[in-house]
Design goal:
The protein is mainly beta. The chain has three domains: 104 residues, no CATH class; 98 residues, no CATH class; 89 residues, no CATH class. The protein is built from no helices and 26 strands. It has a nine-stranded antiparallel sheet with strand order 8-9-10-11-12-13-14-15-16, with no helix packed on it. A five-stranded mixed beta barrel has the order 1-2-5-7-6. It has a two-stranded antiparallel sheet with strand order 3-4. A hairpin with a 2-residue loop joins strand 15 and strand 16. The protein is rod-shaped and about 135 Å long.
Amino acid sequence: MAGVIKSADGIVGIAACDKNESSRELQVMIPSLLPFYRGEMKATHQDAEFTVNDGKSSRTVTTTTSNVVTAYYRDSDPNNSFPPDVRKGEQVIVYQNEGSHIYYWKSSGRNNNARRTETKRIAISATLENAPDLDDTNTYYIELDTRRDKHIRLKTNKANGESFAYMFNIDAAKSQVILCDDAGNQIFIDSNIPRVFMSNKSNSMIDLNDKNIVIACENDITINAKTGKCHIESGDDMTLKTSAKMTQESASDFDQKSGGKMTMTSGGAMTLTSGGEMMLTSGGAMTLTSGGGLSISYSGSGTCTGNGATMTMTMARLDIKKG
């Protein structure tokens, strides 16, 4: 197939096959160069023999004819990293430099509904250097992929002096979402479990794993309800433990409930202070243990009732004072 396409706007071609995923080449049929072609739109190649006679001698020449041209991807938008994954039968625009046998193609955008899954990446340079190639290390990019990994990804890098690089990835195939930087800070969602996990590079973390919650850090945890109520309740065992001082303080009512065993253990001093009524209630055995002194002070009426169960106090010294 030969012919010169002189129009700056190119000429309409038809994709004769699906574009290979990793290729920038496309087999294109150009109807205007094949006005009498009939039949199925299919790339065909055929060898033909011709006899050439120059008057003195003759010789046989074998040549290959085709109803398609091989065109190379050319896009007017340089930020598109990958060619569109055009399908067989989709319209494309074909270009040819005059005097050249090299063809170029780009999507016409007229019948994208012929597409199935594909990969699209929009990338811009993030470096002041004259990089020979733009890749994951020197671009900011957005990638949509329904052909390979079924993901949407947004990523930055540190090619121009940035302190951190960031990545936001929606992995629809694994039902997971992650937002993270390159320093070890992250927010992670796994919809299958379900789980929401957040951590930083200092090993502080909150993990909502199915029906369980874990909160952990190496230093302080503060829960502060300044104008409302703070309610802690367990349907099973509850353990509050510290190797140093534990302080629970309330300017009004303070309520802790457990349907199972409640244990409060301190390696140092333990203080329970209430500006109103304080109640320690147990349907079973209750144990208050102190390696030092235990002081119980009250200004109103006070009641200590076993209700048929057992209350045990073990300490070196017990002071009970009525104000």
